[in-house]
């Protein structure tokens, strides 16, 4: 066997076609790289916007905490406004999530939908039917059609009928 390279010959028409195809591929590569850079810039900008909005929520919480730290005996007016202030911070945070299509799951029934809920406990109740949601422990969220976190609930459980009722004969 010879170590000399083998030469391949192609006709001019095929050579021109290959050069044309290579040129098209190079142009597509440049367009794809530019598109990727633009997507990275857009993603970075969106991430920065998210962080800035979350920092606003943090600022509001820090202001409340600083006030409490500097005023160990807060005024009755402050204590009265505190639930509204915390609710405002919560609304702001939910607004930040909502802008990114992360929304709370709204339960439409008193019975758990196991696609949306996770039962974490059951409690004996006689005032409501079995399997009725008695408490939402942790709110669930969805992102578009995806469930990020199911709603955690407690449901009613019928009282056991085996209470030691033995018929005496």
From TrEMBL:
Annotated GO biological process: protein folding
Protein's recorded name: Nucleotide exchange factor GrpE
Coiled coil: none
TM ranges: none
InterPro entries: GrpE, GrpE_head
Keywords: Chaperone
Disulfide bond as UniProt keyword: no
């Amino acid at each position: 066997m010879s170590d000399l390279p083998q030469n391949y010959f192609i006709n001019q028409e095929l050579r021109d076609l290959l050069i044309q195809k290579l040129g098209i591929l190079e142009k597509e590569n440049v367009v794809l790289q530019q598109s990727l850079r633009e997507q990275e810039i857009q993603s970075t900008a969106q991430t920065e916007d998210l962080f800035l909005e979350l920092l606003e929520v943090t600022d509001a919480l820090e202001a409340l905490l600083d006030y409490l730290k500097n005023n160990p005996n807060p005024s009755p007016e402050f204590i009265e406004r505190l639930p509204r202030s915390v609710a405002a911070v919560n609304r702001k945070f939910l607004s930040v999530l909502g802008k990114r299509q992360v929304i709370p799951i709204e339960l439409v029934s008193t019975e758990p939908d196991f696609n949306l809920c996770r039962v974490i406990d059951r409690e004996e109740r006689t005032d409501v039917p079995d399997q009725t949601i008695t408490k939402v422990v942790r709110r669930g969220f969805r992102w578009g059609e995806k469930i990020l976190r199911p709603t955690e609930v407690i449901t009613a459980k019928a009282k056991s009928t085996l209470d030691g009722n033995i018929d005496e004969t």
